[in-house]
Amino acid sequence: MKSHPIYLFFKKPLAAGILTFIGLLIVIQIIAYQKYVINENDQKKEIINHVNLIKEKLQALVMYSYTATKTLAYIVERNGIPTDFDTIAIELLDRNKYFDVVELVDSEGFITHVYPLKNNEVIGFNILKSSTASSGALATIKRKDFFIAGPVNLKQGGVAMISRHPIFIKGKFSGFAAVVTKLSTFFNDLNIDASNANQFKYQLSRVNQDTGKEDFFLKSDIATLKNYAVPIEMDYGEWKLYVVPAQQEVNAAVWFALIGFFVAIFGGWGVWFFAGQSERLERLINLKLEKQEAQLSLMHETTSKQIKRSEANLNKAQQIAKLGSWELDLVTNKLSWSKEMFRIFEKDPKKFKVTSEAFFETIHPDDRAMVREAYAKAVKNKKPYQIVYRLKLSNERIKYVNDHGETVYDEYQIAIKTFGIIQDISERKEFEEVLTNSALLYRSLTSNAPVAIFNINMEGECTYVNEEWMKYSGMNFTESMRFGWHNALHPEDKDRVLKEWQEAFSNNCEFKTELRFLDKKGKVIYLSVKATELVDSKNNIYGYIGIASDITERIENERELLNYKNNLEELVNSRTEELNEGKEALLNLLEDLNFQSVELEKEKVKAQSADLMKSSFLATMSHELRTPMNSIIGFTGILLKEYAGPLNEEQKKQLTMVKTSGQHLLGLINDVLDISKIEAGKLKVSLYPFNYLKILEKTLDFLLPQAAKKGLVFKTEISQLHITLNSDERRVEQVLLNLISNAIKFSNKGSITVQVDVVDDMLITQIKDQGIGIAPKDLNKLFMPFIQLDSGLSRSHEGTGLGLAICRNLIEKLGGTIEAKSKVGKGSVFTFKLPLEPS
C-alpha cells in the first residue's frame, strides 16, 4: 500500500500542501457559509425579538387603553360628566406609564376636558371635523366600541396614538373617553431612541381602512424596505411594525471566507513547509465550533426567559383588572381559558376541564338562555356582543360578569373562531345598588322636608330641587335644572345674590343671605337661604347643598312695625288734639243737656228735643272715647310683642288683662256709637255690588279659632256658587259677625250651620245653632236695646244687649227683615233677608 503511486504522490510535500490547501479551503468555506447562516439567523432572531417585544408592549398598551377608556366611559354613562375629572385622570395616568393625556369629547365632537392641561391647549378642538382625526372617530361611533386611531400630530409637538371609547347614554351617542400615548413615551419604555437608533431603524404604521394607505408614525423613510413590514394582529385596525438594520453591513462570514482563503493558502504552504501542523489546525477549528454552539445556547435561553416574563406580565395585568380572556375554536369546538378565567369562575385549572358544556353549567340557570341567544345573534349578525350575566358559584353565591365577545370568519364568511374577554363586575354591581338606595333615601327625605332644598355642582348648575323649592319658585323640576334656577330670583336681587354666591364659594366660606323669589304669577316670597359644601371621604369638594325657608310673614311684620313706629308720634299728637277738642265739645254738650233738662219739665216738645240731643251726645262721646281706646289697645299690643324690651310673666299677665278689657270696652263703645247714630237718624249706608259668599267665608275664617276653642264645628249649606249683593258690605259683614258670634257664645257643643238661599230676588241667610235656646216669652225682647235675657250679678255671658238691636236696625235700613226662632235646650235659628238689588 505504501508503495502505491497515489500514496507516494500525497506523501510529497507539494502534494500534501495542495491537498491541505484544497481541504482547508473547502472546510473554511463550509464554516464561512455556516457562519454566514448563523449571522443571518442571529440578526433575524434579534429583529424578531425586537418585533415581539414591541408587539407585546403594543398589545399591553391596547389592553390598558381599553380598560382605562372603558372605565372613564362607564363613569360618564352612569353619573354624567364627573366633577372630579382631574382626580380620575390623575389616577389613570398614575396607573399606566404609557398614558400622557386623558380627554373627554362631547357628542358634537368638541374636546371639553383635558388633563394635564399644560401644553395641551386643545379644548374646543372638534375631532369630527378634523381631516386627520375624523375617520378614526367615526369608526369608533360606527363600531360602538373601543378603537385606536393614529398617527396624530399633536399641537404641542410629537406624534401619538389616541385610544377612544364611545359613550352611549340611553342608546344615544354622547361623546368619547380617550387617552393619548405619545410614541416617544412608548419607545422610551423600550429604551429605544427612535430618532437616533444606531443598530436598527424603527417605524410603526396603521393602514387606513378607507384608502388602504399606510399612515406612518415616525419620519423615517422606509419606502424601499416594505419587505421588513411585520403585520400586527389587533382588533382595532390593521397595523404594521418595521425593525430594519440601521446599516446593511457585509456579513462577517464573507470576510471570514476571504481570510479563510488566505488561511488555506498559508495552511497549505504550512503543511508543505511544516509537515505535521494539521492536528493543531483541526483543534483550533473544533474550539471555534464549540464557542459558537455555546453562544447559540445562551441566546436561546435568554429569548425563552423574555417570553415567559411577558406572559407573566400579561397574567398579572389580567388579574389586576379582573379581566379574563377565552377562545373557542368553532372547527374543533375546543374552548381555552386564560389563568384569570379560572380565578373569576373559581375553578382549579388542574381539575376543571374547560368545555362549552362546563362553561354553561357555571352560568346562573335563569341567565343561560339569554347568554345563548346573545351569542347566537352575534354570530348570525356578524357583530360583536356584550352582555352582563350571573355566575352561580359554590354555597349558592352569585357573581356578576361582563362578557364581550367577537367571532372571526374565513374568506368564505364561515365562522371559524370566537374570542372574548370576561370581567368580574360584582363589586361595581354592589356599589350601584348601595348608590341607588342612598339616592332614593335622600330624595324621600328632601321631598317631605318643610323647607326648600337644592343641590348645585361645581359649575354652578342646579342638579336637584325638592317639592317645597318648586312651590316657592313656581317652576317645575326641569325648568329649575342647570342655570334655570336663576329665573326664580327677583330681578332686583339677581345680580347681588349671584355675586354673593361667587364670593362665598371662591373664599370657601358658607353662603348665607336673604332674597326674594318672583314666580310667573307675580307673587313675591321672601326667603332666608343658607348653603354649604358637599365633600367626599377625601375632603374633595364635589358640589353644594342648601336650604331656604319662607320669611315673608316676618318681613311684612317688620315693615308694618316700622311704619307704625314712624307714624306713632304723629298719631299720638293728632289723637291728643282730637281728645282736647272732644273735651270742649263734651262740656258744651253738658251745658246744653242741663239747659234742656230744665226745659224738659216744662214742655214735651223740648223733651223730645232733649231725647235727640241725648242720642247725639252719646254718639259724639262714644266717638271721642273710641279714639284713645284704640291707642291704648295698640300700645298694649306693642308692649306684649316686647319690641320695647323683655317683660316678665306678671307684666305680660297684667298687660294682657289691660288689652282684653280695652277690647271689651271698645266693643261696648262701638255698639253705643252705632245705636246712638241709629236713634239720632245719622246712620248712613253705602250701596255697591260685592261678592256675598266671599264676605261670609272671611267672617267664618275670622271666627273659626273662637269656635274651635269651644269644640264647635262650622257647616255651610249654599244653594249657589256665586252671589252678588248690591248693599253696604261693611254693615252686612257686621250683621254676620254679630249673629255668628252670638251662636258661638251661647253654644257649648254641636255645630253651627249657615244656610244661604236666593228666593225671588231675596237673599235669605239662616244661622242655626244647638245652644241653650230662648224661651218663647223672651223672643219679643231680643231686638230691644240694652236688654239682656241673662241679667243680674250671676249672668254667665258678657255683652251690652245692643248687638241684636243694631242688627235689626241695620237690616231694616238696608231694606230687609230679621227674625228669630228658638226652643229652650234645642238651639236657635236667626234668619235675615236682604234684597239682591235695592228698590
CATH class category label of the domain at 688-835? Alpha Beta
Strand order of the largest sheet: 2-1-5-4-3
Supply the number of helical segments: 20
State the end-to-end distance: 174 Å
- Look up the CATH topology of the domain at 688-835: Heat Shock Protein 90
Major pleated sheet:
5 strands, antiparallel
Strand content is 15-25%
CATH superfamily membership of the domain at 688-835? Histidine kinase-like ATPase, C-terminal domain
Stretches with pLDDT under 50, minimum 5 residues: 7-11, 791-796
Structural class: alpha+beta
Number of strands: 26
- Rounded to an integer in angstroms, the radius of gyration calculated over CA atoms is 53 Å
Report the helical percentage. Answer: 40-55%
The second-level CATH architecture of the domain at 688-835 is 2-Layer Sandwich
Average pLDDT works out at 75
Coarse morphology: elongated
Domain PAS: 312-380, 440-506
GO molecular function: ATP binding
Domain CHASE: 49-220
Protein name: histidine kinase
Note down, in words, how this protein is organized:
With 839 residues, the chain is of the alpha+beta class. Among the domains are: 322-430, Beta-Lactamase (2-Layer Sandwich); 449-550, PAS domain (Beta-Lactamase); 562-680, Helix Hairpins (Orthogonal Bundle), CATH 1.10.287; 688-835, Heat Shock Protein 90 (2-Layer Sandwich). The protein contains 20 helices and 26 strands. The strands form six sheets. It has a five-stranded antiparallel sheet with strand order 2-1-5-4-3, sandwiched between helices. A hairpin with a 5-residue loop joins strand 8 and strand 9 (238-245). Helix 16 runs antiparallel to helix 17 and helix 19 (729-745) runs antiparallel to helix 20. The radius of gyration is 53 Å and the shape is elongated.
